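Thread: Sphingoid long-chain base transporter RSB1, structure

OP (GT): Posting the sequence first so everyone is looking at the same thing. Length is 230 residues per the record. Can we get the structure tokens written out before standup tomorrow? I want them in the notebook alongside the other entries.
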Amino acid sequence: MGAMSVGCVSALLGYVGRVMMYYNPFNFDAFMLQIILVTTTPIYFCAAIYVTLAFTINEFSPSLARFPPRYIYWVFINCDVVSLVLQAAAGGLSTSTSGKSQIGVDLALAGLAFQVFTICIFCALLGDYLFRYSRSGLLAANPLHGRFLIFFAFLVITILMITIRCAYRLAELHAWYSGGLIRDETLFIWFEGFLILASVYSMMLGHPGLVFQIRKKEGAGPQRPQAAEL
């Protein structure tokens, strides 16, 4: 909840900077506001997704995961921190050089590329876990329905939208701050604003609290197989 809230505030402030630039394209403070905050917003959303997945695995069957769920916190959130530091450093360099630093652009690209790479690895591990879970017999014995299906469906949709958004920002910055993509407002609205807004609503509709509160009340849950059963 905290990570999503910080991400929403970051996005809103970044969009304020974008609107300010519409009225004054030479407002450098507004330029840096939107460059830094808009770029780093998905990092907070990803952190919320990583925590949600770790909790989900722990509740369903941690023995089916490739490594203990708590490592997801340490590995993926630390990777997000690295992305955040790189992009913050890029913003600092761009600010001090009035957006003329190629090193700043390269650092921003490195941070975004690392973020996309981290998300892809996360998606691969998520797919692997779901595949192992389906093969374990737990899914057949305890089929998912209702809120569980909604939760997993919207979680996957959110991950997909954030991945597309990060890939768009990577392509946008690859052409540098003076490139055509960064000036295309239509693309920005659809691949930035719309995807971020849709991601927030997707996480709301598939809120994990609704799923696991019902799970606790019912006292239900699939039995966890031992490693020897896999």
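GT: Both are above now. Quick notes for whoever picks this up: Helices lie at 2-23, 28-60, 70-96, 102-135, 138-141, 147-174, 185-205, 208-218. Residues 2-229 form one domain.
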